[in-house]
């Protein structure tokens, strides 16, 4: 590690300790012709760069970035039916303000392209290529991957195809790493059927029920309304394709990964059993399981202060390794 980077990390350690107690960027990988970044300032005064890039199969991916490009990096990967907006509390968290943070909408979600073909979502390599495109376009040097729910599968798909040499660490948040029925709850298994229904009324009800199942501490009425809009934007083909994937077990991938893994899991998760995270903990020697006693499927949202503190500590440690 160069002297300047060591000095930067040392300074960052002090900032993280205090938290606990708009630069320009031109995409280069699979760049869309009109996808120049736009810099906006949100209601909290934080400058963010929005961008759009193309993945290897031409799928347009929408995302945003904030923070010093020289800072330790975090790439947030959201879950099924969600979007990059899921990480709003982390983007505004004082404990994470010193990091370079990038998030994007997965294919079929948010503002990204939404193919109507299930084949666009059944191939793990396509999910992997999306992450690779974002990393290259955002010029991320050695990010920590944060994968929530489906995002954990996507992170694993990336490691499976591209390896973990360029990844500082992985934070799996109530992540799906093995599609075994015994590791997903009965409620989650039921959603795989009704969420892909071609009957609009059935699918609409399932979307609302699925969103509610993501929380032990329910969001406010206004927050739920906004989340429902995002959930309703997700292409039906996403569910259809993902449940038919031939890549169902990524545990060997995480076992082979040599970097650190932080496992974050809400004990009241109604969709992914804690056993899913416990299995990764058992096979990966450099991993830690952190259980959130007041959270369901979304501990980063339900207990954001603790989550931000733990993630900041993990990212700093991963960059010292």
From TrEMBL:
GO molecular function: hydrolase activity
CC per GO annotation: membrane
Keywords, ordered alphabetically: Hydrolase, Signal
Signal peptide: 1-31
Keyword NADP: no
Pfam families, per database record: Abhydrolase_1 (PF00561)
Record domain AB hydrolase-1: where: 74-304
Protein name per Swiss-Prot or TrEMBL: Pimeloyl-ACP methyl ester carboxylesterase
